[in-house]
Structure formats: C-alpha cells, structure tokens
Amino acid sequence: MHEHLASIVRINEAVLVTSSKTSVTFVMINVTMWFIMLLLCPSQLRAQLGTTPNIKHIVVGRCHSYITLIDPSLRYDCEEIWRHFEEAVVHQSSCNVTVEDYHQMFYLMPQTWPCDGVSKTEILAPKLEFLFWSKTRTLMHSYAAVVRHFWTLEDTLVGFMFNDLIWCGQDEDPGFDFNSCPKWSACRTHPVYSLWRQASQNFAEMACGNITVLLNGSIVNAFNRKSMFGSVELDNLNPQRVDYVNIKVVTNLEGPYIESCSQGSIVDLIQILQSRGFRWTCTDNDETLMILQCIQDPKQPSCQTCANSLLHRKSLTSN
Q1: Which terminus of the chain is more solvent-facing, meaning fewer CB atoms within 10 Å of its CB: N or C?
Q2: Model confidence, pTM
Q3: 236 vs 224: CA distance, rounded Å
Q4: Over the stretch 188-204, which tens digit does the pLDDT of each residue have?
Q5: Residue ranges for the chain with pLDDT beneath 70
Q6: Burial class (CB in 10 A: 0-12, 13-18, 19+), 120
Q7: Is 95 considered catalytic here?
Q8: Euclidean distance between CA atoms 173 and 290, whole angstroms
Q9: H or E element: which one contains 310?
Q10: Which of 208, 261, 282, 294 is catalytic?
Q11: Of 219, 245, 99, the residue nearest 158 (C-alpha)
C-alpha cells in the first residue's frame, strides 16, 4: 500500500514541475492525495465519534413523538426541555457535566410511572414489569419486544429521547463538539454518563411489583458493582415497592458458561438482595431467551436440542 502511495506522489510531483498551470495542478494533487488516503488508510483518518449530528432535531422530534403517540397524557414543552439540556452541556467542558447539571431538565419532565396507574399501563399490559439489564443490551431489547409487558428505561420519556445518542461540549468555543467526545471511562462526570445515571436512578426508585434483571452468564462478573445496574439501580430499588426480583442468567449459545444462579457474582447479588429483604427468583435457562438467541443463530447445536425438546412437548400435549 505504501509503495502505491509513493508512486502516486512521484507522478504528481512530476506533473507539478512540468505543468504551466501550477496552482490548478497543486489543488488537484491535494484532492487526489486526500481521496487516496481515504480509500487506503481509513483507520488512520477516522476520528473518535463526536456529538450526534442534528441532535437537537432528533431529541425534540422524539419528545414530540412520545407525548403525541406513546403517552398523550403528558403535557410537556419539548423546546424548553431541550434548552435546559443544552445549557447543562454546552457551558461545561466535555468531562465536567455532573448529575446536578441535569436537575432542571429532569424537573421539567416528571413522569407518572406504571405502578401509579398511568395510561401506558393500559396500553401495554395489565401486569407491567420493570426490566433491568447488564451486558445484555441487544438481547434485552429483543426480549422486551416479544414479552410486551416489560417496561424498560428506554420506555420512559428521557430514555426514549436520548437512546443511542452521543453528546459533549467543548472548552474553546461554547457549544457541542461534533468532532470528538471522550469515552465514558475517561471521567466520572461525562455528560452522557451523568444523564443516564440520573435517569437510571429515577427508574429504579419508582420500580414496583415484579421486576426482572437480565445478566450475561458468559462473562466474569455478570453482576458488576461498577455497572449502572450494580452501582446505581440496585441501590435505589425499594423492597417495600418491589414484590420479587426475578434474575435471569443467559449465556451465549456457543458459551462460555462461566456464571449461573449458583456460581460466580450472581451469588453475591442474591446475598445483597436477601440482606435488604427482597424476595427473589433465579433462572439459568429461560426458554424464551434461548429461542430469541436461536432465531439469530439457528445453526447452533443447542438450538437443535431446544427445537427437539419443543417438538417433543408439543407431541405430548396433542396426545
């Protein structure tokens, strides 16, 4: 690749010397070189993702969609919510936005929760359950889509508005930095982390009835005290409001099979729940979760075993 680049540079240099239209040729050389670099060296030019383009239109548009289509009982000013969000971010450096900076924005969008008889409860299911997760994001969304009575953080207004977006400010010129943003791990007061921390705390504080926690048994520390669930949500669950904490441990179809209800960090989670007075259940092989995984990768041997088991059960039922 480098030999090709060197050859092209030599050719363009020759053109630059012999051409009478020096300025035009120089521009063409630069354009050519940048185009070649983009094609041959993308990894060297690709910058870290900055603030999501058109973030204002996305956030305000999602806000209007939510209060119009999902929960018409809400009467919020989406532009005002955006203004307070923007003020919290753009007047701070990219690693200096605290939870407190978002308080005014959250104050403008209090949400009635399913336990309090909100209309969303009637829309989705009569027995709504809060769904928490850690390191199982993709499967969690599939699970919530199939089992319609689950209520996730993304089903709340703030979760719906900011899901999958990136944002940060900048020191030099107040405003959003659309070129690059630090990773969450770079600082404890990351603008994205601080917002989701507050949203997660609110979500956990209002959890009630039966709740489900989806954890990844194919990794060490499936229950991690430093995760959002382990460090924020778990500590804000109220045993007076929550009837049961239903833990579901799911492993990758191909393994490895590292943790389970009786092994690893899941045992630590159960001990914490017991010490705080929660009632709990724990399942290692949830059939619905396995079927969802097999839909994505049906050639796995474990999927054939699952299919045979279901067929056998069906034949017994029909007899």
Answers
A1: C
A2: 0.78
A3: 16
A4: 899 999 999 999 999 99
A5: 1-48, 113-114, 116-127, 305-319
A6: buried
A7: no
A8: 50
A9: helix 301-318
A10: 208
A11: 99
